[in-house]
UniProtKB/TrEMBL annotation:
Lineage: Bacteria, Pseudomonadati, Pseudomonadota, Alphaproteobacteria, Sphingomonadales
Coiled coil: none
Protein's UniProt name: Dioxygenase
InterPro entries: Carotenoid_Oase
Necessary cofactors: Fe(2+)
Iron among keywords: yes
Pfam families: RPE65
One Gene Ontology molecular-function label: carotenoid dioxygenase activity
Cofactor: binding details: Binds 1 Fe(2+) ion per subunit.
Source superkingdom: Bacteria
């Protein structure tokens, strides 16, 4: 069997595991609060085969869907591959057939025209369906009980885009889901499809618009009135793809843009605001409107956080020399022109988490991952190659910041938030924490943390019996939601 390349994308916490397994009644150290009742789904990229090209990256790994089921203080775990078309073809061939990240011109001719997506970025729950998503293709529906793949999801053919974002947004009051797909009609296209689904998961509308150039629109935001599309200057080029090159290259001198339109889909009313050149953000914490003002809080950096996207754009900058921070952009829709205001509201970091109930509304508190100033060098792992080792709670209204800093040799992945039924309680955060136990030996645990007392550390820990590859995003789905799963209703 060919070996995996010994690069940052395949060593450390990124060492491929590729084992589908399940375990019941894992050991729990401490006590899991009884009100935590549901499932923590995780998207884990894990390449089933050694890649065709040695410069392959984490983002190409086959999506695995993992599930912690938590009920009555007990924890079960299961993980399976998402049976994408790509995974099935490579499984049959017993080798990689798809080439470089999002470049079909580098594939084995045997798979020309086949679905390349690996469904490895975010588990999305909406309208009784669990989707495993990646922004270069449609989501795959997965049975939330068995983790078996049901198939590609396009709203019974109603959603015509070829792609579906890994970062849809759900309005907590209406239950509607707002989403989009970019490169909606093909590689390097500027076409963006914007969709709205009702609370039962039926497509209500789909409207198309053009972005200023073909950028990677990884995340977007909604407020009670608006949909907000940030455009950062990481661009695609068809000639580069045809010559076997990178899909994305960051352009440090190109302007960024933000498009704001009514969230019900009036694309003709889109207003474009011009931002600083060269900046980048992958994740937005939240957005909200206040009269004519629209506030957008995002994890902003002064260049692209992915080394391979910088290098393709000729930018030589070490990961540790990237600066940025939690940033608020404020747009005044009563004013003409394309300007807006910028204010720093928190330390650098990424992988933000919000209470679902605060989506698109003024919010008191949010959580995200950062670096512990006392934590020592980060462990190699995760999509950018360096794992976070601190969890922050931030209250943008008053600047209060709290931190759960991890010790040397530890890493943390993005938490999910579980609401609490107790009045005045901020709920719970669940997350996987890894610890280096030997040169190539990592131990993983599930941690349960009081969301309003993170500095106190976990109230419960669940040591995992097998290694776990680094996750991208996760989703919490309550037992009540799981009971409404479409997969269990009579066909
Ligand atoms: C991201 C993740 C992806 C991807 C593009 O976190 C961007 C950002 C896990 O896959 O394909
Ligand atoms: Fe993301």
């Amino acid at each position: 069997m060919p070996a995996y390349p010994q690069t940052i994308h395949f060593v450390g916490l990124n060492t491929p595991v590729g084992i589908e397994w399940a375990a019941r009644n894992l050991d729990v150290i401490g006590a899991i609060p009884a009100e935590i009742d549901g499932a923590f789904f995780r998207a884990v990229p894990d390449p089933a085969h050694a890649p065709m090209f040695d410069d392959d990256i984490v983002l190409s790994g086959d999506g695995m869907v993992a599930k912690f089921t938590i009920q009555g203080g007990k924890v079960d775990y299961a993980i399976r591959y998402v049976e994408t078309e790509r995974h099935a073809l490579e499984k049959d061939a017993r080798r990689a057939l798809f080439g470089r990240y999002r470049n079909p011109f580098t594939d084995d001719p045997a798979v020309a025209g086949r679905d390349r997506t690996v469904a490895n970025t975010t588990p999305v729950w909406h309208g009784g369906r669990l989707l495993m998503t990646k922004e270069d293709g449609l989501g795959y529906e997965v049975d939330p009980d068995t983790l078996e793949t049901i198939g590609r999801w396009n709203y019974h053919g109603a959603f015509t885009s070829q792609t579906f974002t890994a970062h849809p947004r759900v309005d907590p009051h209406t239950g509607e889901m707002f989403f989009f797909g970019y490169e909606a009609d093909g590689l390097c296209s500027t076409k963006v499809a914007y969709g709205v689904a009702d609370r039962d998961g039926n497509l209500v509308s789909e409207h198309w618009f053009d972005q200023p150039y073909c950028s990677t629109i990884h995340d977007f935001a909604i407020t009670q009135q608006y949909a907000i599309f940030p455009i950062f200057p990481t661009t695609a080029d068809l000639d580069r793809l045809k010559s076997g090159g990178a899909h994305w290259a960051h352009q440090q001198d190109l302007d960024s843009w933000v498009g704001i339109m009514p969230r019900d889909g009036k694309v003709a009313e889109m207003r474009w605001f011009r931002g600083r050149p060269g900046v980048s953000a992958f994740h937005i914490v939240n957005a909200f409107d206040d009269g004519d003002l629209v506030h957008l809080d995002l994890c902003l950096s002064d260049t692209n956080a992915f080394g391979f996207m910088r290098e393709a754009g000729g930018i030589q900058r070490d990961q540790r020399e990237i600066s940025g921070g939690l940033t608020r952009w404020t747009f005044d829709l009563s004013k003409a022109g394309d300007g807006f205001e910028e204010r720093l509201i928190g330390p650098p970091g990424d992988m933000p988490r919000l209470r679902d109930a605060d989506q698109g509304r003024p919010y008191r508190s949010a959580w995200y991952l950062s670096m512990n100033p006392q934590g020592g060098p980060p462990l190699p792992g995760g999509p950018v190659g360096f794992a976070f080792n601190a969890l922050l709670q931030i209250e943008p209204g008053n600047g209060r910041i709290d931190m759960m800093g991890l010790e040397f040799g530890m890493a943390i992945s993005e938490p999910v938030h579980v609401p609490s039924a107790q009045a005045g309680h901020d709920g719970w955060l669940l997350m996987v924490v890894d610890r280096q136990a030997g040169e190539a030996d990592f131990k993983s645990e599930l941690w349960v943390v009081d969301a309003n007392a993170i500095a106190a550390g976990p109230v419960a820990r669940v040591p995992m019996p097998l290694p776990m590859r680094a996750q991208v995003h996760g989703a919490w789905v309550s037992a009540a939601q799981l009971a409404s799963a479409k997969a269990h209703q009579a066909a």
